[in-house]
Amino acid sequence: MNIEQIHEYATSLSNVEVTQPFGPDNIVYKVNGKMFLLLATDEEPLKFNVKCNPELAIELRERFDAVAEGYHMNKKHWNTITINGTLTNKQLKEFIEHSYSLVMANPHNANVLHNF
Predict the structure, then answer these.
(1) pLDDT at 108 over 60
(2) Whole-structure pTM value
(3) Beta bridge partners of 86
(4) Beta strand ranges found along the chain (DSSP E)
């Protein structure tokens, strides 16, 4: 995925707001006023941060080299995803959708695990 594809996918989700509170090199995608995706547009390779269920976050970091603790984020709840060709577009979209779902969910639904 490239910047345009990530943007298109993220904004296709319901009620998404796009902001740039950290300057022109970072795009923040929010739902209900809360961030679910931070896209760094000046990174090479391209990277983004997504919220993740804490147990799943650890599992994904162990399973995929392209998944790391959230850079400049709460390491328990955020992952940084590097787009380096090792993850499929489907997996990248699932990471974004999982983050979106966590932010949209009621607190008692936030522990739902997806199959990555």
Answers:
(1) no
(2) 0.89
(3) none
(4) 16-19, 26-31, 34-40, 47-51, 67-69, 78-82
- Return the pLDDT at 28: 97
Phi/psi region, residue 72 (left: phi>0; alpha: psi -120 to 50; beta: rest), is: left
CA 59 to each of CA 27, 52, 54, 63, 75: distance values in angstroms, whole numbers, following the listed order: 26, 11, 9, 6, 13
Q: Which domains can be identified in the chain, with CATH numbers?
A: 3-109 (3.90.1150.30)
Alpha-carbon span 83 to 5, nearest angstrom = 12
In tens, the pLDDT along 45-86 reads 999 999 999 999 999 999 999 999 998 888 899 999 999 999
DSSP letter assigned to residue 109: G
Question: In the structure encoding, which two tokens stand for residue 18, read together?
Answer: 């796009």
Tokens of 28: 């923040």
